[in-house]
Amino acid sequence: MYIIHIYYIDYFFMNLEKLFWSEAKVWILKYLLFRRQWISMRALESELNWTFPAIKKQVDSLNDARVIDVNKEWQWRAISIKPEFYDIIKNIFYFWLKQELEDLFKTYSVIIDQYYFWKRFWVALEMDLVIVYKNCEKVQIDQIKEDINNIFRSYYIEMVSVVFMSLEDRQKRYRLADRFVLQIMRFYQIST
To answer: Which residues contact 89 (CB under 8 A, 6 or more apart)?
Structure first.
């Protein structure tokens, strides 16, 4: 029964706003995970463009749930995610990030032949994302790059390593036993 549950979670898009009951709470957690911790509510107000009462309400809710720490000993209330929940919440947000990227790639399914998640998604390679495309003009690739950047920016992730490779280039590099392509194929067990 447990294995079936894990199997189905990959096929349904998770809605974090429903999970956390608030869009503001999701943005606060994203900020604490991907930008910085130990931030005041006033600083969050200016960074997130939410009103102070909305931020305070969600911070109080997260504090009541014992997910974050609010250090009241400093001159301001410094907010951070509790260490015991940090990795769990980060995994949930990375799962959601991956789902958003996969949904984007489905909209470009005519252009994108294959895609591979790497470094940011706990795979040992120096790239975050590898995209193999076909039937594509430079303008279309530029639009895909912009869409990918927008998704990562919505998580406060500014630096992303993305490799775009044409299908022909991937096949040529495979025939030449290119180490990078062979590593991708070995890890994902792809046939040519």
So the answer is: 29, 33, 67, 81
* The total number of residues written for the chain in this structure: 192
DSSP string covering 71-121: E-SSSS-EEEE-HHHHHHHHHHHHHHHHHHHHHHHHHTTTTEEEEEE-GGG
Beta bridge partners of 81: 68
Compute φ and ψ for 171, nearest 5 degrees.
Answer: -65, -40
pLDDT surpassing 60 at residue 130: yes
Among residues 170, 131, 127, the alpha carbon closest in space to that of 148 is found at 131
At position 23, the amino acid (one-letter code) is E
CA dist., res. 52 & res. 31, Å (int): 15
At 118 the pLDDT is: 77
What digits encode the pLDDT tens for the residues 38-96?
Answer: 998 888 888 988 899 999 999 998 888 888 998 877 666 789 999 998 999 998 898 89
Gap between the Cα atoms of 120 and 146, Å rounded: 18
